[in-house]
Amino acid sequence: MNIKPSEISKIIETQLKASDQEIDYFESGKVMEVGDGIARVYGLNGVMANELVKFNNGVYGLAMNLDEDNVGVIILGEYFDIKEGDLVKRTKRIIQVPVGEKLLGRVVNPLGMPIDGKEKISTDKYRPIEFKAPGVVERKPVDTPLQTGILAIDSMIPIGKGQRELIIGDRQIGKTAIGIDTIINQKGKGVYCIYVSIGQKSSALARIINKLESFGAMEYTTIVFASASDPASFSYLAPYAGAAMGEYFMFNGMDSLVIYDDLSKQAVAYRELSLLLKRPPGREAYPGDVFYLHSRLLERAARLNEQNGGGSMTALPIIETLANDLSAYIPTNVISITDGQIYLDTNLFYGGTRPAISVGLSVSRVGGSAQIKAMKKVAGKLRLQLAQYRDLQSFAQFSSDLDASTKRQLVRGEKLSELLKQPQYSPIPVEEQVLIVYLGMQGLLDEIDTDKVKDFSVFFIDYVKNNKKDLLEEIQKTKDLSEAAEKDIKKLAEAARKEFIA
Fold this sequence. Notes:
- It is built from 16 helices and 16 strands.
- The chain has helices at 5-18, 151-156, 175-185, 202-214, 232-251, 263-276, 290-298, 329-337, 346-350, 373-379, 382-396, 404-419, 430-441, 453-467, 469-478, 483-501, and strands at residues 28-35, 38-43, 51-55, 60-66, 71-75, 87-94, 96-98, 107-108, 126-128, 166-169, 191-200, 221-227, 255-261, 312-320, 340-344, 363-364.
- The strands form three sheets. The protein has an eight-stranded mixed sheet, sandwiched between helices. Strands 1-2-5-4-3-6 form a six-stranded antiparallel beta barrel. It has a two-stranded antiparallel ribbon with strand order 7-9.
- Strand 4 (60-66) and strand 5 form a beta hairpin.
- The radius of gyration is 29 Å and the shape is elongated.
- The termini are far apart.
C-alpha cells in the first residue's frame, strides 16, 4: 500500500487542530531540605537572584544563594507544610511591590499586601524592591529645608530634602518620637511619608497609627510593617519595600520622606538569614556584606536635578545603640553612610531635656544650606553657645567664685537649654521658631526665671499673633529677617515681657 508523505502531514495537521490541550511548561526544582524559614532547592538552573519562586502550598520564596548545585531560598510565609521532595516553580519575576497614591493611608506588609483589614489595593503601578541608586550626574545639591517642626533640630541640625540623617541612641529615649513628629509636621507641605516599622510589637504600631490618624497625617502616609512575630525575611525586606514606595514619588517629581525604624533590627534579621544560608560570618557574626546591606538602601535617597524631574527622597534611618556605644559595628557603618546624625543622650533624657539631643555629638553635613535665611541669621551661634554652656556647666560645679562673663554665659545657656525643650506631638512652624530662637540668642530671656522660659515663649508667640500677625507672615513669605523685622521683635518682646511679668 502506497502512502504519500503529503497525506501523513495532513492527518497530523488535522489532529493538531483538533487538540485544544495547552502544554503547561515551567521550570521547576525540588526541595532538598527545609527548616527555620530556609529551603534548599535542587534544580532551577536558570533562576535569577531576588527572583520569586512558588512552592506547592502557594507560599512564595526568594532566591538568595545561587550555589553551584542548589539554590538557597528564603521562605516568605509559613514553611511548616513544605517538605522534602516538594515541587518549586520559577515565576521569572524579580520581587516587586505595589507603589503610588493608592497606598496612602494604608498599612501593608513588606510584600505590599494590606494588613489593616480594609479593601484590597488595586493598582497597576509596581517597582522592584531593589533598585540602583541615582548617579552623581542625576542629582543636585541638597538646598531645600525639610522642616521637622522640632526646634532643636531645625535650628542646629537642619535636614534638607534628599538628605540621609541618622537618628541614633539607646532604647526608649525618643528616637521614634522624632520620626513621628516629622511626619506630623509635613501636613500640607506636599511631602509623602513612608514609615517602615521593623520588628516592633503590633501594640506599639497601633499607638503610632492612632496618633497619626488623630493629626490627619495618615492621608499622606504609608506604613510598611514587619512585626516581631513575622519571619526574619520580612524584617530584611521591609526597608527595601519602603524605599521602592518612596522612589515612586521621587521619580515622578514629588517629595517623599522614608523613616526606617530601625535598621539595627534589619541587620540582626539579615545576620540570621545569612547564618542559616551558611554564609561565612565576620565581625560580631554579621556577614561580610552587611555594610552593603545598608549602603545600597540609603544611597537611594537623593535630590534629583530638573532634567530628572526634580523630585526628592529623604531618609531618616534609626539605629539603636547599647549603653551609648557608638563604636559598635552597625552604628559605625551607618554613621559613615549617612549625611550626619542626631544623637540622643540617655543622661539628657533622664535629666529632663526632651528631645534629648546631644549638641556635641550631633551633626548635619549639609549644614546651613538646608535652612531658611532667617533661621541661619538667628541660630548661627546657637550650637556653639550650647556646647560652651555644657562644658562650663561641668566646670562650674567645682568652682564657687566665677567671673561675671562666665556667669552670664551660664545664665544664657540655661535659658537656651530650657527654650529648646519641646513636648512630643507639638511641631512648631519655622516662622515661630525664628522668633523663639531670636529671643534666646539676643538675651531677651535672661531676666525671666528659667522655669517660666517655656511659658513666656508660648505667650510671646500668641502676643505677636494678636498684635503684629503680618510679622510672621513676612518671615513665612520672604524666608528672611529684615532689620525692620528685628526691631519689631525687640519692641514686641519688651512689651510682652512687661505684660507677662505683670
